[in-house]
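User: My collaborator sent over this chain with a note saying "see what the structure looks like." That's all I know about it. Can you take a look?
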Amino acid sequence: MRALMAMFPVRSAIRHERFENELLGCDADMARLRKSGEIAAKTGEYEERGPRGGKLADDKTVTIDDRTDRLPPTQKKGRTYVRTGPPKE
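Assistant: Without extra context I'll predict from the sequence alone. Here is the result:
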């Protein structure tokens, strides 16, 4: 990843995030880690992740139906949520 960043200099954090998302092939909102208690930016499925964004063996998936809903507490301190897609019905 650092070699790619050296080839394409990035001047701001926003451009860096967009660049990473293009490499990973995902939506910018899906890549952002969110803390418990934050207001969800979009409705959809949110999956619990580790402190640095890694997948967990005992992860919890939460469905947010309203944009004013807050993300629930995580199972352990330091964990985050990441949006995985639209709400499933």
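A starting point for your reply to your collaborator: The first strand starts at residue 33 and ends at 34.
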